[in-house]
Amino acid sequence: MKKASLLSLALSTAAVAASGAGFSLFQGDTTGCADAAGSIAKGGRAGDLYYNPATLSAVTGTVVQVGAFFTRPHLKIDGANPYTGEKNRTAAKKEWFEIPHFYLAHQACDDLWFGLGLFSRAGLGDEFPAGWPGRYNSRKVEITTIDVSPVLAWRATDWLTVAGGLTFQYFDVVLEQDIDAAGIAGLRPYNDPSPSPFDVRQRMHGDDDLAFGWDLGVMLEPVERLHLGLAYHSEIETKVKGHARYTAPAPIRAAYPGFFGDTVARATLHEPAYVMSAIAYDFTDRLTLGLNVTWSGWSCWDKIEIHEDEGFLPGHDVLLSKKDWNDVWRYSVGGSYKLSDEWTLLASFTYDDSPIEPALCDYIVPADTRQIYAVGLSWERGRWALDGMYFFEHINDMSTDARVREGMMDGKFAGGFSHAFAFSASYRF
Fold first, then answer.
1. Which of 194, 208, 235, 359 sees the fewest Cβ atoms within 10 Å?
2. Which parts of the chain register pLDDT below 70?
3. 5: which DSSP letter?
4. According to the model, what pLDDT value does residue 8 have?
């Protein structure tokens, strides 16, 4: 992988902890985390272009917004040795992850706006201890994306705004797992989760410097107090190229000198398209309530197929993992209440369905359907606006069936939850 640019370094942790089903990220803006319906249908912050670029028409002047989302996920994996039945429990590594963002919104004239966003729309991060029972399926995964999105919004009438733009994306992925060399040699049952001194570490690291997508948005106010928003974010295809590296114990290197050589690896991956829709209604001058429905096209994630120039074993130059994920829906109800001219309270509840096919689940994305409870507070005075948000995310338990060849055990993903905070500051010139 080439050395990262200064931008990549600044956002290198931008997407290592997914807080959406699959590995989607819906944490592009602080107020949007607390009230997605308001961000899609009504807008008001430069960062709302993450959800719906047409909301730029709710911004006056030139606004710069910076902020970040912080989350700490918790997850345990219960399993049973498929050969002995011995029970085990492993906790994923606990740490805080950051997802920063930057937005610029500029009103060129009464009816035209330009926007620019730097953010992450997808990402993932999981790491397990060395020697854990599921190591033959996954030890570590990191998916990091950096999206740069210029957009234009045009107010066609007093009640209709349309917008469009492009997304230029940097994509980086790390996959680590162990290989049961003793099992391959027939010295013990294959992929036995029990400890082995002959495990080989496999680490794959690749990136795509420039992938492309596009975005469309519409915002309508057909009658007084009613706000409607609809946005489409296209599927993005990434052509990842990098290296597969193998770390083998000395006895394995000595016994099989022609095996487990470092090599070039490549894969084509797809991120889903999204359709985000929302309706919001101003019941009073202070109270707005809304509903958001988002569709994610995760059926594009049907498999991971990694091609190596030279396989770690003769005849193993293609590594295939079947996924067969499903398209899913995300539902959110929320609203905002103006406590005063300067302070606004936001709150929402979100139900986020999982795209994972239970029979093909793995430890790379160990999560299921989730429920999110969010609350936020906004302050605005003069040219400045400050936003803060907290949410608690509960992840449903998900059962797993043993698939020995893939390193999966009978058991379940259990006790999944995360705490998250977001903060942002905006200044209008």
1. 359
2. 1-21, 315
3. P
4. 36
Residue 38 CA to chain centroid, in angstroms? Answer: 21
Helix (H) or strand (E) holding 87, with range, is strand 87-91
Give which of 396, 320, 413, 295 is closest to 361, Cα–Cα: 413
> Which residues, in sequence order, are CB contacts of 416 under 8 Å at separation 6+?
73, 74, 75, 76, 366, 367, 368, 370, 394, 395, 396, 397
How does pLDDT run across 23-76, given as a tens digit for each residue? 888 989 999 999 999 999 999 999 999 999 999 999 999 999 999 999 988 889
The pair of three-digit structure tokens given for residue 229, joined into one six-digit string: 């928003």
The two structure tokens encoding residue 100: 């920063």
pLDDT in tens, 252-304: 988 888 888 899 999 999 999 999 999 999 999 999 999 999 999 999 988 88
Q: Which residue has the tokens 């999204």?
A: 274
The pLDDT, as a whole number, for residue 20 is 59
Look at strands 410-428 and 287-296 and give their pairing.
unpaired
Q: What stretches of 297-359 adopt beta strand conformation (E)?
A: 303-308, 318-322, 328-338, 343-352
Residue 332 near residue 391 (C-beta atoms within 8 A): no
Three-class SS of residue 129? coil
For residue 59, give the amino acid letter.
V
The Cα 95–Cα 78 span in angstroms is 20
- Report the CATH number of the 6-428 domain: 2.40.160.60
Distance CA 123, CA 17 (A): 6
